[in-house]
Write a sequence for this structure.
DNA sequence: TTGAAAGCGCTAACAC
DNA sequence: GTGTTAGCGCTTTCAA
């Protein structure tokens, strides 16, 4: 792999290396020279060595994205948003999948912070204090999580939960079961905060069913518990759980939404493909990723260094899994 | 972000930079010196600058993974396999999502081949000749695609197709519809090759229905066409198409598998969550990624440079969407 | 075994 | 507007 260097381009174009550098990075060069250099560079298939450039500029042109699990469509969507935007601004993206392990997460932060211009930390599993200790506030943006002292881009989960409950109440449901996820997670606490707003509502009863794994299997497990309750509707921690619920309810011949309405959270693409199609709270996933990247690179009006806290709106998407109370 | 350099460590340890370098990378140093240097490095939180190291060693310690669409669970699974293995061998992974665009793909290859130690090219959309022109055979491994002249790790699609058809034949089906994907793709041609084996089978008729987009919507579209045919079973291009089929068949009150058996391909995680759970040809996805990485890094018995062609077995996973012919 | 010094490919002062 | 030169942080000859 013999790579062409600035030297080669300079020689071929009959100019100095600095002229080549300037011509290619937008320094002051005469139009004609620039044109010639660009042509030669292109002809030689010249690709600047990012490592060398980074060594001197102090910027690598790369950033890191850390996610708990790429297999989870939610994170895949976030990653898609990041990579798409990165491609547009010609920025490389290191992706680290931590397998839901907080320790791996902290290690990834330690490695990436020295080899990238910044880190996008999506739904980290580590605790606030650990994150604060490991991350550089100047070059870190949290995605779908908020920690005081760090910049973040997150969805308005409380409002999304509110919309979901109001939707069910408007359909005449008076007893709604809430299937919770991992209780110590930030996302879970946010949902609970939304639920809590209805505590004083005399005509509504929220039945906390159980805390399950935020997976299809977790939903299957919750299915029987919900059927054993007096609820006429269920709000699930996320779409995966909702799909598990749907599966178990179908197996027990409980027709959705006649017998029970089901509402999910996140609106992953598969929510629309379930049977019946799932009503779900849509969370901007790819958009959060793109905005986080802009924040990191200081491309928008705000920068990560300012400790920005971006909150994106959520919207309830009504499909066939929710209907009038029977 | 003031990073500690070898200089700092050398000064603090009272030795020269070269000694520090040797102590940390396994050169010949006296045990006592090494111990002291390592201690100081650790105390100072020293993290070697990969860019600077790469500049001189010629190896970056990173590799690139190019996929058409991270949102597609198939590719997310492959990516997961790659990143998991990469973490184990302490290797960074650049992920580039090309959005199914062959041009973006070629650009990604051009950028990454100069800034990584190698490229993992998953199910590329570009043509053989373009790939051969853009990629360096020494440092490129194809995943789920074969191109003469390049190393690859792919599943035995022909055999998987064979298993699916035999399964349906064994269930008594005599007219099987095949819903094809993008006709010019490698994966599609492989499936067709598997189908072709049954041309001479007197007791079996394969009805080519149509070529659709390899998506849920493509499957929905194919649903009506399949119902209009005489087929009693359908083999779909992939699970997404199969799920679209399932959806449309349910909407038209065609019960699966009584009225029609449906078999998908790939066995993505959602195949087990569909209604009814989908019979599908399982393809090693994460394993292909991990093996590809080893090939690239020359960690196994083979290396990419040798032009290895690894073929992984496929297995039919029978679930509720396929049953006896009515 | 250790240190001094020469770069890897590139950009940014600084001269011209 | 263009060329010369000094490094960025690191590894690796080459001497000692």
């Amino acid at each position: 792999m013999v790579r062409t260097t600035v030297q080669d381009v300079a020689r071929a174009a009959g100019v100095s290396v600095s002229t080549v550098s300037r011509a290619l990075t937008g320094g002051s060069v005469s139009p004609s020279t620039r044109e010639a250099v660009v042509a030669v560079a292109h002809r030689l298939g010249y690709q600047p060595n990012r490592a060398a450039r980074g060594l001197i500029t102090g910027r690598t042109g790369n950033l890191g994205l850390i996610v708990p699990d790429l297999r989870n469509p939610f994170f895949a969507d976030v990653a898609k948003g990041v990579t798409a935007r990165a491609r547009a601004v010609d920025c490389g993206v290191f992706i680290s999948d931590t397998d839901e392990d907080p320790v791996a997460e902290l290690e990834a932060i330690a490695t990436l912070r020295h080899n990238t211009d910044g880190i996008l930390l999506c739904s980290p599993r580590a605790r606030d204090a650990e994150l604060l200790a490991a991350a550089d506030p100047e070059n870190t943006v949290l995605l779908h999580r908020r920690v005081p002292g760090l910049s973040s881009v997150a969805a308005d989960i409380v409002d999304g939960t509110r919309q979901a409950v109001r939707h069910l109440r408007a359909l005449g449901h008076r007893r709604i079961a809430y299937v919770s996820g991992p209780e110590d997670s930030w996302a879970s606490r946010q949902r609970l905060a939304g639920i809590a707003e209805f505590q004083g509502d005399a005509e509504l009863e929220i039945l906390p069913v159980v805390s399950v794994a935020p997976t299809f299997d977790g939903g299957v497990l919750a299915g029987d518990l919900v059927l054993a309750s007096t609820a006429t509707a269920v709000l699930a921690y996320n779409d995966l759980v909702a799909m598990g619920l749907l599966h178990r309810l179908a197996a027990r011949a409980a027709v959705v939404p006649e017998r029970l309405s089901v509402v999910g959270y996140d609106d992953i693409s598969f929510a629309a493909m379930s049977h019946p199609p799932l009503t779900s709270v849509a969370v901007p996933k790819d958009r959060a990723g793109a905005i986080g990247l802009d924040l990191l690179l200081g491309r928008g009006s705000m920068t990560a260094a300012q400790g920005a806290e971006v909150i994106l709106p959520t919207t309830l998407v009504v499909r066939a899994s929710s209907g009038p109370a029977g």
User: Anything to note?
Assistant: The first strand of chain A starts at residue 62 and ends at 67. Residues 15-19, 22, 28-30, 33, 52, 54-58 of chain A lie near DNA strand D (CB under 10 Å from a C1'). DSSP finds twelve helices and twelve strands in chain A.
